Amino acid sequence: MALQDDIDKLARIPLFEALGTEALRLIAFAAEARILRAGDVLFRRGDRADGGYVVISGALALEVDDTGGPAPHIAQAGELVGELALLTPIERPVTALAREPTTVLRVPRPLFHRVLKEYPEAASRLQHMMQERVEGFARELDEMRQRALED
Questions:
Q1: Yes or no: domain 3-150 corresponds to CATH 3.30.300.30
Q2: What is the spatial order of strands in the sheet that 32-36 belongs to?
């Protein structure tokens, strides 16, 4: 896949759109593509998460357990899986299983941190975006709490 195609795909992902073209170029250049067959496991629940994955093509079923029930979420092309793992060490909360032939782009945490160091303006935009998301989440929680108290 051409570098510019990867940059364009990364730019459409909310977390990455704040970074800017040059920062995305570094990510696209240094990230590693991984091709999965249908049924391949990308990672398992409880695994140490060392970065995120961008679904380039195909789809991943994100399963909380191994009961074979319906997946709570299907990550399609253009989605980022493991966003929080780009910022901090965590365990994977789900198992990611390829539903069909799937290509992902692995963005290791050290690469993401390098981008934020080399492009401080991108880091500032990302911080602002994350702050807005946390504030929105807090408002939603407060609204839910208010509704629960009214019932």
A1: no
A2: 32-36, 102-108, 51-57, 80-81
Which pTM value belongs to this model?
0.83
Q: Per-residue pLDDT tens for 37-79?
A: 999 999 999 999 999 999 999 999 999 876 655 657 999 999 9
Residue type, 127: Q
Q: Where are the domains of the chain?
A: 3-150
Tokens representing 63?
């399963």
